[in-house]
Design a protein that fits this description.
By secondary structure, the chain is of the alpha/beta class. The chain has two domains: 78 residues, Urease, subunit C, domain 1, CATH 2.30.40.10; 289 residues, TIM Barrel (Alpha-Beta Barrel), CATH 3.20.20. Helices cover 25% and strands 30% of the residues. Strands 6, 9, 10, 11, 12, 13, 14, 15 and 16 form a nine-stranded parallel sheet that branches. Strands 1, 2, 3, 4, 5, 20, 21 and 22 form an eight-stranded mixed sheet that branches. Helix 5 packs across helix 6. 52% of the residues are buried.
């Protein structure tokens, strides 16, 4: 179907929310929006709304598969499964591990990333290994080290330039120089798993760091005498703050405070989902650690700490609307355009705009996901 028009009651366009009308799709790309009934094939979604496909820039696994399994067949299954979460683009996310393991995982994704059949791989997010132990979460501290540009360049070479984001602790020795170097290469530097002071966080931002990893979690908290990493996230207007809105990682009121301070233009909803996403409660692993999943939360068996999440990104959108801390338009933007902008891929995904790939969702006014399109083709439909 080379050209058609979508008829719907509301469209969440990049330029703003549009009322009932028609949206053109030609050769898998968005065309114009019009209120006048056009000539040609019309797909009638009257009673429904059209939203941009979601972009998950921090996700480790789904449906029993994990990026660190180093099995690209598993990532293929993740890609297809993510369509049921409204995700049409994602960054497979690594964990701290031995350099050799990261070499293998990176090379595999770099070689095969275009073979996925569902949500598109738009890059790799390296979460670590340049962290510190105090806020390690489910990252293995035995592999932590100071930032090393030669090691990073080797990973980037193995990935064929696919690493779009890397997270580090700003208090590590050499962090500022590392940040200055890789940001010049177009790589986004994120800050997390860190006990850094407010001043250290500010210095990293001045050097070019622009994202805070799962804000509130895995970082020094906000105090009136030491604002810490959380204060750094809140008080640097130009940075983007990741946020996990599953109701376990962050209290809705704390999420509202962050969104109010940063504005929805600078908060990126992410999942940090691990392999148990989309799976029943039970025992799983995250990296080398055993994890118990129960009642929507994943926790390390060793100490009960949260170990990633089992959140699906569309549910994160629905949660912030249900918590009454964002409008539907704001919530969708925080899960599509903002994350895309945070890693400089907004020219290929994250919004409904003429010329962009037609990756979009059909949703109900009750914020239920009904159908997911990629490149203008329906690839998932709710039963």
């Amino acid at each position: 179907m080379a050209e058609y028009f979508i008829k719907a009651d509301r469209f969440f366009l990049k330029s703003g929310t549009a009322a009932a009308g028609y949206l053109e799709v030609t050769d898998g790309k968005f065309g114009r929006y019009t209120k006048e009934q056009p000539l040609g094939t019309i797909l009638d979604y009257s009673g429904s709304w059209i939203a941009p496909g979601l972009v998950d820039t921090h996700i480790h696994g789904f449906l029993g598969h994990d990026v660190m399994d180093n099995n690209f067949d598993g990532i293929r299954e993740m890609s297809k499964g993510l369509l049921s979460c409204g995700v049409t683009s994602f960054l497979p996310t690594t964990l701290t591990a031995a350099v050799e393991t990261l070499n293998e995982v990176t090379a595999s994704i770099g070689e095969h990333y275009q073979e996925v059949e569902g949500a598109k791989i738009q890059g790799i997010f390296f979460e670590g290994p340049f962290f510190t132990a105090e806020h390690k979460g489910a990252q293995n501290p035995s592999y932590f080290s100071n930032p090393n540009i030669e090691v990073f360049n080797h990973w980037q070479e193995l990935s064929h330039g696919l690493i779009r984001k890397i997270a580090l602790a700003p208090e590590r020795e050499g962090a500022v120089e590392f940040i200055q170097t890789v940001t010049k290469q177009g790589v986004t530097v994120a800050l997390g798993h860190s006990a850094a002071s407010y001043e250290q966080a500010q210095a990293a931002v001045l050097a070019g760091a622009s994202v805070f990893v799962h804000t509130y979690n895995g970082m020094s908290g906000l105090s009136h005498r030491e604002p810490g990493m959380v204060g750094g996230a809140m008080n640097t207007k130009e940075t983007t703050a990741e946020l996990i809105c599953d109701g376990h990682h962050v209290h809705p009121a704390a999420a509202e405070v962050l969104i109010t301070v940063k504005t929805p233009e600078k908060v990126a909803l992410i999942t940090d989902c691990m392999r148990a996403g989309g799976m029943p409660d039970g025992e799983y692993t995250l990296g080398e650690f055993p994890v118990d999943v129960k009642d929507g939360a994943a926790r390390l068996q060793s100490n009960g700490s949260l170990a990633g999440s089992v959140l699906q990104l569309f549910d994160g959108v629905k949660n912030v609307v249900d918590w009454d801390i964002a409008t539907v338009e704001e919530a969708l933007k925080m899960a599509s355009l903002v994350p895309a902008q945070s890693v400089h891929i907004e020219d290929r995904c994250g919004s409904i705009e003429g010329g962009l790939p037609a990756d979009f969702l059909v949703i109900s006014p009750q914020i239920e996901l009904l159908e997911t399109y990629v490149d203008g083709r329906s690839l998932y439909k709710k039963d």
